[in-house]
Amino acid sequence: MTKLPLKVQVAIRDQWDKDDCVLQNTLKKLREVIGVEIVVDPEWQLLFAELDTAYNDKAQFVADVVSCVFEWANALVYLAEKEDYSDWAEKLLDKAKGRIRLYLEVGKRSEPLVEWSEERASFVIELCKPPIPNAFSLQDMLTKQLLQCFEKKTLPVTPAHRPAAQPGDEWADVEVDTETGKPAVVERTPVSRGPLEPPSRAQWDVIPEMSTLPRPDELLLKPPYHLTVTSSNSRFVEVQCSHSPTLQFLAEYLKKWCKTNTQDSRKPPSVEVKLYQSAFGLGLNYDRLTLESEARWNIYTATPMLVLSLVEGTLGYQPVRSEDGRWVFRRDVELRKGR
User: Fold this and answer.
1) Which of 71, 58, 164 lies closest to 114, judged by CA?
2) CA–CA distance from 13 to each of 8, 9, 18, 49 (Å)?
3) Helix (H, G, I), strand (E, B) or coil at 127
4) Do residues 172 and 188 make contact, with C-beta atoms less than 8 angstroms apart?
5) DSSP string spanning 23-51?
6) 3-state SS assignment for residue 55
7) Among 296, 301, 302, 303, which Cα is nearest to 264's?
8) What 8-state DSSP symbol labels residue 322?
9) pLDDT: is 301 or 210 the higher one?
């Protein structure tokens, strides 16, 4: 993990951590106005690793992060106190469920962007490289973006959004709704594929410079994708995959079609489907999915059959090998997702 320079550590201490600093006072005011807990806990090391080279003055990196969060909080206070936006504020409280959480990431735009993540039930600010807008412009920009956060945004599937067809790439893309972040597979046309052949390689390669590599959540969106399914008994199935949208698609599909356990008075799903976040990278990125049924209920089990069918028959992963209770797959053609 990137070690923060002393100048950055001091700036975090003075501009972020101090109870009486300007930012913390503003967050306290926001908490009082809205009446719910406000949670902002930046991954400083990861953010700095992404933006380090963009700042000659490392303390300015912290100042820019603080400015974005400060103006976000001010914009929320303004919208919460303004009678004209009472409906918007009610919608925010309904979605926040007793806690407003803010995540900080690094985007590709030239200006900061704030959006609402349905999946995380939280706001997300995408930071940008310097220079950021001045305080007045930044608050005005974030206020307008906040007002649009809960509007449904759908990315149309048009030729402009699809890459040129590649030989043997008849499988559909994994498209993601911009509001929900939930992937779905569309327009599938199964094709027969030959056995996997490893790509031709030179006799040796050079390990790339670390600074030239994208962060893990971006790196893993490029093939090859690796996936394993493991089932040691009839109550538990585990899927590990390097491609987060694949796991999100599997989870959404399985949750949608899972039966209810009618023998339990709480009427829970008969099989619990859980996604687990990766420990690497920025943003919401999954690398593990589990299916588990309770042993005390004998009517339902958790088997890998539907998962295997989806992985190979719908998503186009190719089997590499299998052994007792373990199946290994690989996909060499990219699965794209919408923004």
Assistant:
1) 71
2) 9, 6, 6, 19
3) strand
4) yes
5) HHHHHHHHHHHH-SEEEE---HHHHHHHH
6) coil
7) 296
8) E
9) 301
Q: What tokens were used for 131?
A: 């220079």
CA 138 to each of CA 15, 38, 117: distance values in angstroms, whole numbers, following the listed order = 18, 21, 21
Mean pLDDT of the chain: 84
Question: Does 4 score more than 60 pLDDT?
Answer: yes
Give the predicted TM-score (pTM) of the model. Answer: 0.64
> In the predicted model, what is the mean pLDDT of residues 289-294?
91
At 226, the amino acid letter reads H
Helix axis angle for 86-96 and 22-34, nearest 10°, is 100
Residue 237: how many CB atoms within 10 A of its CB?
Answer: 27
pLDDT at 183: 59
pLDDT for residue 157 = 42
Q: What is the DSSP string of 217-235?
A: HHHTTSSPEEEEEEEEETT
Of 337, 282, 2, nearest to 125 by C-alpha is: 282
- pLDDT over 80 (residue 167): no
Q: Which two tokens stand for residue 35?
A: 């009446």
Q: What is the Cα–Cα distance from 125 to 107, expressed in whole angstroms? A: 9
Question: Tokens standing for 305?
Answer: 């059959």
